[in-house]
Amino acid sequence: MQYQPDIEFRLGANRVERQPSTRDHPLEEQSVAVLDQPIWDGTPQEAIALCLDGKRKTVCFLNAHCANVRARHRSYAQALGRADYVFPDGIGVELAARMTGTRLTANLNGTDLVPAMLQEAGQRGLSVYLLGAKPGVAQAAAEKLEASCPGLTIAGVRDGYGQSKCARSTVDAINTSGADIVLVAMGVPLQELWIDQFRDELDAQLVMGVGALFDFVSGMMPRAPEPVRKMRAEWVYRLCMEPRRMAGRYLVGNATFMTRAMVHSLKGMQAGAVEKRMLDIVLALVALCLLAPLFLVILLAIRLDSRGQAVFSQMRVGEFGAEFKLFKFRTMYVDAEARRAALLKTSDRSGVCFKSKHDPRVTRAGRFLRKWSFDELPQIINVLKGDMSLVGPRPALPSEVQAYPPRAMQRLMTKPGITGVWQVSGRADISFDKMVDLDIAYVKARTIWLDLMVMALTFRAVLLRQGAY
């Protein structure tokens, strides 16, 4: 069962109360802040509906490179601030949002979103004007769009060089064409500055800055293979294709962006939270470096023991009910989830959480990994991503949270941890109610010193292997 949080959490003195989700708000109000820049947050379908609702609007995109330009280019920052909507583009913006506890609904990159939007625009009989890119590219893109978007009218085309030197004639040409949509592909920050300067004079309902979209649509610039895009690593592909031109943007630029995002997130934390986050990052990086050889041995052992990927991901519920993808070394056979329902009655543990000492789904390698808690090691990545902390309550399954009594919701008032008070007090031998008591006590009393104490006790718990199965 896929957990779909329909609540947001409001912290009280000793409780977490359910509140109506902001997803019930109108599309126009779905906004969050990333690096102090308002970002519209929603699904691709919602974004398309917003763009084509017939209201006059300007839409821009923000990725890591855009954010770097925004930090040093005041006019560009002001232009973004005056845009009606700014859509999140790329994993960098997503990570920056996560650092401040915000989870974006989707990656709304223009290369995927705009063609889908134009498909819908064609069905509605709308027209589009293409402005920008090198000579010939916009025309080639227009021909591809006409072929792939039935019903879409190409109102006109101008490149971003000689044909657009006279801004007045360009604006007049767009208005004369009667275009409903204007796509401007001049690159950042020129396209946003152009839109900001001439938007009031343009009659079109929708004006968007679309970067290198025409290059991709026309086929002049190949996109990364689908598996690379699914891994959110298209920037790596572009870097490999154009190392000289893209090295500064992606190698230096990405590092600069992530540093800026981290500093920004730390500024927004309370002193204790900053210290905890810094401790998590430093110790997680050290552990990742030291344990790298062990990771390779475990990966090989799992693959030799049973079929399937050595690392698997599973949806868990974290701080304030936010859903995240948790990583673990696989300790069960690949059909484990399908067999879970049939084994619930064999649980050796009372309460919500299922646990069986003789679970037939566990592999031979898996029993060894569980005995020494090695299966949890990939969660170091979750710590670095900000989904988890080194110390905190056990990350719960969505189905478990749905069965929580109201009191247990207090476990969600802090980030889940790789280790915690429950883990060093007996793990699976502890009842669910006792686990909740321990976790609530930790939430109320958590300090850096308590975290350090729990980490020290973790080594003892691993060696004794109590409750590890």
TrEMBL record:
Entry keyword Zinc: no
GO biological process: polysaccharide biosynthetic process
UniProt GO molecular function: phosphotransferase activity, for other substituted phosphate groups
EC number: 2.-.-.-
Keyword terms: Exopolysaccharide synthesis, Membrane, Transferase, Transmembrane, Transmembrane helix
InterPro entries, alphabetized: Bact_transf (IPR003362), WecG_TagA_CpsF (IPR004629)
Top-rank taxon, per record: Bacteria
Membrane-spanning parts: 281-302
Domain Bacterial sugar transferase: residue ranges: 276-463
Enzyme class per UniProt: transferase
Family the UniProt entry places it in: Belongs to the bacterial sugar transferase family.
Protein name in UniProt: Putative sugar transferase EpsL
Species in which this protein is naturally found: Pelagimonas phthalicica
Gene this protein is translated from: epsL
